[in-house]
Write a structure and sequence with these properties.
- By secondary structure, the protein is mostly beta strands.
- The chain is 2% helix and 29% strand.
- Strands 3-4-5-8-7-6 form a 6-stranded antiparallel β-barrel.
- The two termini are 32 Å apart.
- The model has no long low-confidence stretch (mean pLDDT 90).
Length: 163
Amino acid sequence: MNLSDFNYDLPESFIAQTPVEPRDAARLMVVDRQTGAVTHRVFRDIGEYLNPGDVLVLNQTRVIPARLPAIKTNTGGTAEVLLLRQVNERQWRALVGGKRIGQGASLSFPRTQITATVLEVLEGAERLLEFSQPVQDLLVELGEIPLPPYIHTRLENKERYQT
């Protein structure tokens, strides 16, 4: 199997830009494993496909507003931080977008006194950052919900992105 086996054309007009209302009206594709037949339904019909002994896993994970606009302290250039995983109270693994943001670089965040220093350059754009103070409780004020690059419509209500 090759990665290219998963390439296909998906016209932009087929990509939903906002969640459907009501949420249980979302599309549900059902594939009959014995015949290969495909049926298109809506999610509220899922109960018709569950049998005794089946397991339905519910994901209640919340998307945190982990995309932070930043400024390179030494040049004033723009940068962006996407928090990936909290390491400890003040350290995060993050994707950092911007030019020449290497080890020792310092970032500041608009409308705050918070700064972050790049402790280590990891793989690609990933960096280990240390913030001047814990930011977990400030993310609602500082950050934005990180939408996938194929979503071009900004959400007015951040709760709509939560499942």
